[in-house]
Design brief:
CATH topology: TIM Barrel
CATH architecture: Alpha-Beta Barrel
Number of domains: 1
Number of strands: 12
Shape: globular
Largest sheet: 10 strands, mixed
Distance between the termini: 34 Å
Length: 247
């Protein structure tokens, strides 16, 4: 039986976060994420729905609906309409469907660059897909921001595996009004122990949420200065797709 996956949506837009901000990409958003961070702005991707939407035609902001789960051959047919050089594999947490990705991504990577956006926890699943990935965007989850248990050890093992494979990587750290100095210092220590030259993107959480997401410019500057004192490439970057009003 053909391997299948659960998807939320497929669309074409500009990358709004991280090192490739502004780059045209085809986004394939996979369903399901067990972390359920308090600041998550794609909560619809935390669960599996009966159907998913595909932008038809790409760039139109109009969508056709399709049934979950989707087979590899059917997904490949849908992807033929999209011609962006980059494909962003996002979620949810796409590595929760790593077996599907391991079968599907080789055909994608043969024609395009693949950006994996991940919570950086499932290091065992990472090995199944890493050979077919061009860039890894890894979230570093701070317990004071996520309101979830710490995953420092998982993050370190994940990041070391990416760099050992020679795959380009950068780290995104979402901060909120609850983010603690202790968590920032732990994050600095973790990244510094792996590679002080990794690009770090400090991202203020989307503030239209029912938590203490709002963070002042002064606090953001303080976090940037603290990280910049120990790490080489640190930037504060909001979610630009929200600024631009695109998907």
């Amino acid at each position: 039986m053909e391997t299948r996956a659960n998807i939320v949506e497929i669309f074409s837009s500009l990358q709004g976060e991280g090192r490739y901000v502004g780059e045209p990409m085809t986004f394939v958003r996979f369903s399901g994420c067990s972390m359920r961070c308090a600041f998550c702005d794609t909560r619809g991707a935390q669960r599996v729905e009966a159907g998913f939407r595909v932008e038809t035609p790409p760039g139109s902001r109009t969508f056709s609906m399709h049934k979950n789960p989707v087979a590899i051959t059917r997904l490949a047919e849908m992807m033929e309409a999209f011609d962006d050089e980059f494909v962003s594999i996002t979620g949810g947490e796409p590595l929760e469907q790593a077996d599907f990705l391991a079968e599907w991504l080789p055909s994608v990577a043969a024609k395009r660059r693949v950006l994996l956006e991940t919570n950086g926890v499932l290091h065992s699943a990472l090995g199944k897909v890493l050979p077919h990935v061009s860039v890894v965007s890894m979230d570093l989850k701070l317990p004071s921001s996520t309101r979830r248990p710490a995953v420092w050890a998982e993050h370190e093992e994940f990041l070391r595996a990416v760099l050992a494979a020679g795959v380009e990587a950068y780290v995104k750290i979402v901060v909120t009004g609850d983010t603690s100095d202790n968590d920032i210092q732990r994050a600095i220590g973790l990244v510094g122990s792996v590679n002080t030259y990794l690009p770090i993107f400090i991202q203020p959480a989307f503030d239209d949420l029912s938590l203490n997401a709002a963070i002042s410019e002064e606090r953001l500057s303080s976090i940037e200065r603290l990280c910049g004192a120990y790490l080489t490439d640190v930037r504060v970057q909001p979610q630009m797709h929200r600024q631009w009003g695109v998907l």
